[in-house]
Design a protein that fits this description.
By secondary structure, the protein is α+β, with helices and mostly antiparallel strands. The chain is about 25% helix and about 20% strand.
Length: about 110
Amino acid sequence: MQTRYFQFWTTEADDKQIAHLIQRASDGKPPDSMTVSTSWIHQPALEFYRRYLRIAALKPVERIEPAPLTGFDFYVLSGADRDRVKATSLLVVFADPEADVILAEP
């Protein structure tokens, strides 16, 4: 028995941890000055955590398909979006192969 995530939401298992990493990286930044590009599956949870954790520096997390790989401060990607990172200069700062998710920065 595991209690880390709901069986059908494996890909969202790390969204809370990722939100905390983004929160720490955006501390002290002006309101609405930072942005996140994300795979569609992470958008609802990241928007929830943006509000719940009161990450003032972060603009609302929008659903854009496919997730842009330029012009944002953070990239939370999974699936095919994650695979596209290999062709960029993005720096992966967190990865969980089991949940198939990465957090990357320019």
